[in-house]
Specification:
By secondary structure, this protein is mainly alpha-helical. Helices cover 48% and strands 5% of the residues.
């Protein structure tokens, strides 16, 4: 392997180079966008036999988006630090061992995490496997080079994994603390609803609707009312009003005929006793009717969660506890809030204000991360949270608390979900 680098390069970076953005986004050249699109099609196709055994499973849509981000990052490094012209950029640079080693050295110099660096190396191996399929008649020398390159990348990935320790997890707030934060968000949302009901007869403002959605997302992620939902489920949930007209599942990776994707269902309740009618939902919320039976029950169906992609035996079905704060907030959001925030958007939860921005309303990974960060930053500013948490941290806090209280082994807590038969 004499033609391949044997050590990381010693890279001295300025403070700005260590902390600044370097990837390409809107400036990615058309030729590289086209190549990336073709690679994504090859990766995600259900039947693509030249992927071989290692990549026999199709890549899910969420992973495809992350791989595009990685390609844009490597291309940005090549352009901004290696002097490669934009129009010359292409996937072929993944087969240039010295340039790719320079990029890995750059990531190490920026103190990138072990998992982040290994993710780029893993993608490089897959891209090179794809590039090899584009040559229908490779010479024996081409085949030897492809094999040696993959072996070299494999050794690099393994040694990076061993050489760079996993960063210790920062101290996280307690479960009680994050639950209190969610309760405050909920109380403030209800107060806003009652104020607008008293003044205008109904919830009318985007701010009020956003406060309701903030409280719902916090409660769903933290697990205040039921086991925490994954952020993917929240981002991809469809509003009940749009389900009848849905011709195909919103998840691009779903291949189950007739699947409606992740969704919430609103069901009108029958009277609990005799001919008694349930109260008006918004009278109930605003305390004008003390009937304990609200008009609606809220449930959700998640055929797509984690690695499950439409297998009905793994579909999560759950009814939100009736008369719970989460059920009240969800019914309010489904019936009123969503119409205020995004009346023409099928996604149940949205990222922005259509009157102030042209950014798509449906959550992407980046927009959801920014949305939740803004929510947490405000909680820290107000002293409701002692430290920063990501959406995945909220789930970890719940799991540790639940296992601690129940004395369960890791993994067992998942059985409290109600799976379909």
């Amino acid at each position: 392997m004499a033609s391949f680098p044997q050590r990381l390069y010693d890279m001295k970076l300025t403070f700005e180079e260590k902390k600044g953005r370097y990837g390409l986004s809107s400036s990615m050249p058309h030729s590289l966008r086209k190549e990336s699109h073709q690679f994504a099609k090859w990766s995600s196709a259900a039947l693509q036999l030249d992927r071989g055994m290692r990549y026999r499973r199709p890549t899910q849509s969420t992973t495809i988006d992350k791989q595009r981000d990685c390609i844009a990052a490597y291309a940005g490094f090549l352009h901004n630090f290696m002097g490669i012209e934009l129009k010359a950029l292409g996937l072929r640079f993944y087969s240039h061992a010295h340039k790719f080693m320079a990029y890995i050295s750059f990531l190490v110099a920026r103190n990138a995490g072990q998992g982040h660096i290994c993710k780029h190396i893993s993608l490089a191996r897959k891209v090179n496997a794809y590039l090899a399929t584009l040559n229908p008649s490779p010479s024996s020398e081409d085949e030897r080079h492809t094999k040696r390159l993959d072996d070299w990348l494999g050794v690099l990935e393994a040694q990076i994994f061993l050489a760079i320790p996993k960063a210790p997890r920062a101290a996280l707030p307690s479960f009680d603390e994050v639950c209190h934060w969610a309760e405050v968000l909920s109380e403030e949302a209800f107060h806003r609803v009652k104020s607008e009901e008293a003044e205008f007869g109904r919830l009318t403002s985007w701010k009020g609707a956003r406060m309701v959605q903030d409280a719902i997302i916090a409660r769903l992620l933290i697990g205040t009312d039921l086991p925490p939902a994954r952020s993917f489920c929240i981002k991809t949930s469809t509003h009940p009003d749009f389900l009848p007209d849905l011709s195909r599942c919103p998840d691009p990776g779903c291949r189950t005929p007739g699947c409606k994707g992740n969704r919430f269902i609103l069901t009108e309740n029958e009277a609990a006793l005799g001919d008694e009618e349930p109260c008006d939902y918004f009278d109930y919320l605003c305390g004008e009717d003390e009937d304990p039976l609200p008009s609606y029950t809220v449930s959700f169906i998640y055929p797509h969660h984690k690695t499950a992609r439409g297998d009905d035996t793994r579909t999560i079905r759950c009814t939100i506890p009736p008369n719970s704060i989460l059920a009240d907030l969800l019914a309010l959001h489904i019936l009123r809030g969503h119409e205020i925030m995004a009346p023409n958007e099928p996604a149940l939860f949205v990222s922005g204000n259509p009157k102030r921005s042209s950014v798509p309303l449906r959550f992407s990974d980046a927009r959801f991360g920014h949305y939740f960060k803004t929510l947490v930053d405000e909680g820290m500013r107000r002293g409701l949270l002692s430290s920063y948490i990501r959406a995945t941290d909220a789930r970890s806090i719940f799991v540790e608390e639940y296992m601690g209280r129940k004395g369960m082994e890791p993994g067992e807590w998942k059985r409290i979900w109600e799976y379909s038969a």
